[in-house]
Write a structure and sequence with these properties.
The protein has 242 residues and is an alpha/beta fold. It has 7 helices and 9 strands; from the N terminus they run E-H-E-E-H-E-H-H-E-E-E-E-E-H-H-H. The strands form 2 sheets. The protein has a 7-stranded mixed sheet with strand order 3-2-1-4-5-7-6, sandwiched between helices. The protein has a two-stranded antiparallel ribbon with strand order 8-9. Strand 1, helix 1 and strand 2 form a beta-alpha-beta unit. Helix 1 runs parallel beside helix 7 and helix 2 runs parallel beside helix 4. The relative contact order is 0.19.
Length: 242
């Protein structure tokens, strides 16, 4: 597997904390934008390409706040679980009576992030997760082979919403027993004409993991690179922290 190439070697870079990090889709984008990244996820993530703490993300954040170590960071990104509010759960799953016990960590995550006093980003898929949609990004904005809409709540800073680009066609796969072709692949699940792992990697711009579950949970690095560059340009913090 190809490892992402570090950028700006030897230069001081502002440090970012990546909570609920999974395999590092967001992390790699922030690194490309100019951040040094530290991750935290409750699962073992051997493919995560940066320093990584395995443990409960909220407990770890609370520890960083209590010890003052949070001051090492200039920005925090969090992708907390909110399965009960995602589009699949409130759609198909809800219609079947499934998914009623799904966890929602958005509120507790926001409460702790507010205590840090730092600017932050909370990321969620489309659905009913209770976040402000300060920013919505789509794969077509970056010429990717996935649509993968994602919403972002920005705490303590703002960003201009780019124009949404009309989609070029359908997502490839089966719908109600009929196969549809299209320029995008479905970055979720494994059946119904879903893409192969190499197709997923190419469509999302992710090369450092070949684990399907990690690929389907990730956000494309292009999203967080866009966010990271916008933050650094707006605040002028590049190079402020070793």
């Amino acid at each position: 597997m190809t490892q992402p190439t570090p950028i700006r070697r030897g230069q001081a870079r502002p440090r970012l904390l990546d909570l609920f990090s999974c395999a590092g889709g967001a992390a790699v984008g922030y690194a490309r934008a100019g951040f040094a990244v530290d991750g935290c996820d409750i699962a073992h993530r051997p493919n995560y390409p940066f320093p990584h703490h395995q443990g409960d993300a909220l407990a770890y954040l609370a520890h960083l706040i209590a010890t003052g170590q949070i001051r090492r960071y200039r920005l925090v990104h969090a992708s907390p679980p909110c399965q009960h509010g995602c589009a699949l759960t409130v759609g198909t799953n809800a219609s079947q009576g499934w998914g009623r016990a799904h966890v929602d960590l958005v509120g507790p995550t926001r409460a702790l992030l507010d205590k840090t006093g730092l600017p932050y980003v909370i990321e969620q898929p489309n659905g009913r997760a209770k976040i402000r949609k300060d920013l919505t990004l789509c794969g077509e904005m970056f010429g990717l082979g996935v649509i993968r809409h994602r919403n972002f709540e920005l705490g303590g800073w703002t960003i201009e919403q780019p124009a949404h680009i009309p989609h070029r066609g359908r997502v490839r796969g089966y719908r109600h027993g009929r196969f549809y072709d299209g320029p995008y692949v479905a970055a979720y699940g494994s059946g119904g004409g879903k893409p192969s792992v190499p197709e997923l990697q190419a469509a999302m711009g992710i090369t450092w993991t070949d684990v399907r579950e990690e690929l389907t949970e990730a956000i494309p690095p292009a999203y967080s690179e866009f966010i990271g560059r916008a933050y650094l340009a707006a605040t002028g913090t590049l190079g402020a922290v070793a």
